[in-house]
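Students often ask why we bother encoding 3D structure as a string. The short answer is that it lets us treat folding as translation between two languages. Here is a chain of 210 residues written in the first language.
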Amino acid sequence: MCTRLRDCFNAVWPDAKVEILSDVLASGLALFGKEQGISCILGTGSNSCLYEDGKILSSVKAGGFILGDEGSGVWIGKELLSDYIKGIMPEPLLEKMEDEYKLTYPEIVSRVYREDRPAAYLAEFCLFAARNSADPYIESLVKRGFKDFLVRNVMRYEGFSDKQVGFVGSVAFNFQEWLLDVCAAENIRVKKIMKAPIDALIEYYKTQGE
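And here it is in the second language, the structure alphabet:
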């Protein structure tokens, strides 16, 4: 796949230098540039690395949506659906989900276990959380996901409490007040939260050419 992408770019820009790198490295470049910090992604999935000056020094394995992805859109959607099918979700929200999605248990099981792209299906329900963020149940659920992410990822890096931490991704950005609350409770210093890294990446590579 990487070779094919490189060939496509070189076909249009034959003199261009093409590098295909990981999303977590891109987040590090955007958040910290030449500095050191713990770079985190909280979007559809979640990931992290200890970054410094264009390099990943170490990383905690993400685990994907079954074994990891704590605090991500997939995780939030999975927890919402689980609480929905077990009747744990507060009744008013449960009725809202029924009205909006017309969900049935067989359909949920089929979409998650038998059909393609189950992670994308689960992540769709993060939008429901965003639309109903005033509900204390939603706040508690999302904050629990963020704490799990910090404990199982950020706090795995040696000396994490002395390092600056940054976040990229739609979930981090849209729920940033809750994320900052959870980080403050765990004495984690947040440098920056951004929705997408592209503008910061452009600025980084502009300075590289100077």
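Translate back mentally: The chain has a mean pLDDT of 88. Keep this in mind for the problem set.
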